[in-house]
Each structure stands twice: as structure tokens, then as C-alpha cells.
Amino acid sequence: MALIVHKYGGTSMGSTERIRSVAQRVAKWVRAGHQLVVVPSAMSGETNRLLGLAKDLMPSPGDAAALRELDAIAATGEQVSVGLLALALQAQGVQAVSYGGWQVPIQTDSAYTKARISRIDDARVRSDLAAGKVVVITGFQGIDPAGNVTTLGRGGSDTSAVAVAAAMNAAECLIYTDVDGVYTTDPRIVPEARRLASISFEEMLEMASLGSKVLQIRSVEFAGKYRVPVRVLSSFTPWDIPIDEEARSGTLITFEEDEKMEQAIVSGIAFNRDEAKISVIGVPDRPGIAYQILGPVADANIDIDVIIQNVSHDGRTDFSFTVHRNDYARTMDLLKAQVMPSTGAAELRGDAKICKVSIVGIGMRSHVGVASRMFRTLSEEGINIQMITTSEIKTSVVIDEKYMELAVRALHKAFELEQPANTVG
Ligand code: ADP
Ligand code: ASP
Ligand code: MG
User: Fold this and answer.
1) Based on CB atoms within 10 Å of each CB, which residue in 49, 224, 321, 346 is the most buried?
2) What does the alpha-carbon distance between residue 345 and residue 149 come to, in Å, rounded to a whole number?
3) Which bound ligand lies closest to the C-alpha atom of 216?
4) Pocket flag, ligand 1, residue 212 (CB < 6 Å)
5) What does the pLDDT look like over 230-257, one tens digit per residue?
6) Pocket test for ligand 2, best of 157, 162, 215 (most atoms within 8 A of CB)
7) Could you tell me the residue ranges of all domains in the chain?
8) Alpha helix stretches (DSSP H) within 267-336
9) Is the CB of 245 under 6 A from ligand 1?
10) Nearest ligand for residue 81 CA
């Protein structure tokens, strides 16, 4: 008997029919003798619908008072899901009880819309499990020290599930979703994408942080910090497939590098359209200029991603960086008001129609020429690279958004990711 955490995403919870199938699957695990904690997301589309209602009433909520209400609104999607799932389990003859994050409690800080989990008190959950119940806990939400409902950022149910699994020392956290694992890239963009039987934690962390929305990045961070065994698998297989077959399906996140005898040079391609590029043109090139430009941005709690500074000409240089698209307007306003006058820069340019495409693989560590193959592939497609950033196991480029799919497909092909044999020994 083991304690297992299941997480079901929005599509998996998308209708009462789907919820019944989830309940049947969970009941199967319970009958096999396991203790189950289940963390569902809101029904698909529900969080968007709720946030849409809020937007009708306040188009761009910014201050803490408004963000508090956004979280109070968005958290209700998961509240409905847990009740429905617990009811569906009871209808299967399985004892089940549902809790909101505040009832467990799942404690977070007060950063509304992107709160971080600080502590999970598992006493109540443990006593329910000991009494033979399945415990169904809301994904995505928690409670701050002052008792306010918070949410963990879009896609945050993954993080709730992995955090619960970590806090309870669960044997495994199974993330059930609408694809049957982690692929070499989003299979919706590249139909030839291949499912990976396993992926190293480091690669998964990069893939998630670079835009693969299959797992929220914080869930991967939690998995790494607490060494939680995480598997991504499909909730769309027949619920009654044999449990050992199900337990081996999907993609396992691994922590032992040498577990994989052979490592792919590039394991996957990630992309995101969530950023915008800002360029400050013709700034005097003097010490402290980067701080003068980026300091106010950081002070406004805006995350900066890729940064480049051009070589200077006649004592002036151009400075570009990317921010999340949600922060684009605010960053432009801030630069116009503060940075342009204080630096004496000539011009401010913004471009929200960019995307970032990245190749990821731990095999890149031991292989030269990987980035240049990436650049050559893009040049053969006539795609101009605007910015480049690299780390040991990834190379990212910023390009025009309209070439995103073309770039991802071309790179997938160039690195032969559709073929399982592409590995370095
Ligand atoms: P859920 O609602 O279950 O949390 P998400 O929509 O958040 O599901 O994540 C699953 C989706 O992630 C898939 O439908 C797929 O389109 C997308 N995705 C992006 N990159 C990848 C990848 N590398 N492998 C698998 N799925 C990916
Ligand atoms: N329902 C939330 C969202 O849509 C959380 C999640 O699905 O993981 O972002
Ligand atoms: Mg998700």
C-alpha cells in the first residue's frame, strides 16, 4: 500500500462525464489498496471564464486590493471541481471528502495571482486517509497568513499536487493530463513530436521555464527540491486499464543523470509567445547604465528575461530586454516616465510580436556546435534572430512571432527529434 497523489487538469475534469471517469480511475487505485490524495483543476475554460467576468468589471486590475478579489474569484473554479469529484467518488461507493486550500490549510505568501506555497499542514488529510477516505484537495489555491484566499499562477494545480506529494512524502505524484506524457515539443504544433519515456529533472525545469506548459515551472522546482517522483500521463486512456500498465505509462521525471545511459544532444524544443521586447536606443554608454534602465523595472516587480546590449558607437549604445507580455504596457510607461528622461536616450521601441524558441538538452554540455546548427537551421528558413541567450543545457532565440511554428518544426527536424536513435553515448 502506498500513498499516491493524482492531479487531474482542466480537460480531464472538463465535464461530468469526464469527472465520472476520473472517479472510476481513482476508485481503481483505491481498490488496489493505495491511499489517494487527488488534486483537480477547475473544469476546462472555467478559470478563463471567471477571469473574463472580472475583466468586464475592471479591465486592468493592478493594486493589491483588486488582485485579492481576482484570486477570490479565480479560486472558485477549483472549489466546484473538488466537490464534484468527491461526490462522483461517493457515487462509486468510495468514501471521499473535499477541501479547499484554506481548509487543509495550504499556506502561501500574499503575492496574489502568483503566490508561493510556504507550508502545508497535513494532519487533517492524514486522519481522513487513516479513516479510509480519498481526500480531494483544490489545486491552484491557498491561504495567506492573514486568511486571504490566494492563487498560485496559471497552471498552478501542478504545483499544488507536487507540493502536497512533497509534504506528505507520497510514493509518487501522477499528473494526469490530455496528452500521454512529455513530448520532444508540443505535439499540437509538431505532429511528429515523440513522447519521452523519461526526462531529466534539469531538462524538465528548462522546458517548463522556457514555455512548455505541460507542467508549471514551480511544480518542477518542488519536485527537484523534495525529490518527488513525478510522472506525466494521460487521463484519456480507458479508466479500467490494468494499474501496473498505467503506472508505467507516460513520462517519468528522473533525478539520476546516469540512469539514462544515452543522452540526447537535444531532448526537446520549447517556445513561448508570452514575452515582449523593449529597446532603449541611443543611450550614453557609461558605467551604471544597465542599472539605470533595469533598476526601476526591477523595483516595479517586473521580471526581466533576455537582455542584450549592443557594442557602442560614438559613445552611445542600444539596450534591449524582454518582459512578460502582461507587463509590457506598464514597463513602457515606466521607461517613458522615468528612464528616458534620466538617461537621455534617443528613442524607446517596443515589440509585442516576438516569441522565444529554445532547444534544451543535457547532451549539449558535452557537444559543441549545437547552437550553430540551430542558427544555421533558422537562417536556411530565412528567420532573423533578434536576441540569443544560452546556458549549459539550452539555447534560446528571440524571433518574430509569425515564424514561431516554422522555427519549431524546422528545428525539430534538424535535430532529428522524431527519431529515437538521436543520442550521444
Ligand atoms: P492540464 O489542463 O492537464 O494541466 P495543460 O494544457 O496545462 O493541461 O498542459 C497540457 C498541454 O501542454 C498539452 O495539451 C500540450 O498541448 C501542451 N504541451 C506543451 N509542450 C508540451 C510538451 N513538450 N509535451 C507535451 N505537451 C506539451
Ligand atoms: N485552473 C487554473 C488555471 O487554469 C490552474 C490549473 O489549471 O492548473 O490556470
Ligand atoms: Mg496545466
Assistant:
1) 321
2) 43
3) 3
4) yes
5) 999 999 999 999 999 999 999 999 997 6
6) 157
7) 3-179+214-228, 268-414
8) 289-299, 328-334
9) no
10) 2
**pTM exceeds 0.90, yes or no:** yes
| CA–CA–CA angle 235, 173, 421 (5° rounding) | 75
Q: Please give the Cα distance from 105 to 83 (Å, whole number).
A: 17
Q: Which of 186, 198, 394 to mutate to test the pocket of ligand 1 (most atoms within 8 A of CB)?
A: 186
Near ion ligand 3, which residues have CB within 5 Å? Answer: 9, 155
Q: Hey, which of 6, 41, 232 would you mutate to test ligand 2's pocket, going by the most ligand atoms within 8 Å of its Cβ?
A: 41
CA distances from 164 to 246, 317, 335 (A): 21, 49, 41
Cβ(251) – ligand 1 distance below 6 Å: no
Q: Which ligand is nearest to the CA of 14?
A: 1
Domain 268-414 sits in CATH at 3.30.2130.10
pLDDT, residue 99, reads: 98
Residue 60 burial by CB count (10 A; 0-12/13-18/19+): exposed, middle or buried? Answer: exposed
Helices (H), 227-335: 243-248, 289-299, 328-334
The 3-state DSSP class for residue 366 equals helix
Q: Is the pLDDT of residue 312 over 90?
A: no
How far apart CA 303 and CA 297 sit, in angstroms, is 8
Using only the alpha carbons of the chain, give its radius of gyration.
Answer: 23
Evaluate whether 3-179+214-228 and 268-414 have a shared fold. no
**Whole-number Å distance between alpha carbons of 360 and 394:** 4
Nearest ligand, measured from the Cα of 154: 2
Domain 3-179+214-228: assigned CATH number: 3.40.1160.10
Distance 262 CA to ligand 1 centre (A): 26
Measured from CB, residues less than 6 Å from any atom of ligand 2 are 9-10, 41-42, 47, 77, 139-140, 154-158
Q: Is any atom of ligand 1 closer than 6 Å to the C-beta of 130?
A: no
- CA–CA separation, 39 vs 136, rounded Å? 6
Contact 79, 37 (CB under 8 A): no
With both helix axes pointing from N to C terminus, report the angle between 64-74 and 76-91 in degrees, rounded to the nearest 10: 20
